[in-house]
Amino acid sequence: MRPAFLLAGLGVMAALIGGFLWFTRGSHIQIKGEVLKVRTHAFSDGSSLAVVDFRFANPADFPFLVRSVDLILETADGKTLNGMMVAETDAKRMFEGMPELGQKYNETLKTRDKIPPHSQDDRMVAARFETSIDVLEQRKRLRIRAEEVDGAVSEVVENR
């Protein structure tokens, strides 16, 4: 076989694969985003609260239907702690009862939310962690983990 035919065949295959990836780029369901603001509050010596405001986008051609949302703390010493999520109705009362948190800017991202295709929005999540405020404030990062009803998982990670 001649090298020219082999190279031409490889070029055609690369073009086909590239075209397939280009035309199906909107089929990958995920959300991408960035953390805008993190607020913390101490409940007691062994319990604290994190409120995270973030911006996200759904670049896919399909809606992202939220199955679950988690807030995960990565501590300075490498441990991972899952927070107990605060519901939207409780978050409203929480901001009224704790003025030191400031204003509630965004709606909470919650189960069964439908994020339209090609959209961008600002949301918040809040969670209680069974750890001291010092551990929370000296964290490596916080991660917002959103799972879609079909199993796709997306994370918005805090940059510190």
Structural account:
The protein is 22% helix and 42% strand. The longest helix is centred in the N-terminal third of the chain and has 21 residues, at 3-23. It has helices spanning 3-23, 88-97, 133-137; strands spanning 32-44, 47-58, 64-74, 80-82, 84-85, 114-115, 119-129, 141-148, 153-157. It is α+β, with helices and mostly antiparallel strands. Strands 3, 4, 6, 8 and 9 form a 5-stranded antiparallel sheet that branches. It has a 4-stranded antiparallel sheet with strand order 1-2-7-5.
Cα separation of the termini:
56 Å
Number of helices: 3
In terms of DSSP E residues, the strand content is: 35-45%
Radius of gyration: 21 Å
Element-by-element helix/strand order: HEEEEEHEEHEE
| Class per helix and strand makeup | alpha+beta
What share of the residues lie within helices? 10-25%
What is the element layout, followed by pairings?
Elements: H1 3-23, E1 32-44, E2 47-58, E3 64-74, E4 80-82, E5 84-85, H2 88-97, E6 114-115, E7 119-129, H3 133-137, E8 141-148, E9 153-157
Antiparallel strand pairs: 1-2, 2-7, 3-4, 3-6, 3-8, 5-7, 8-9
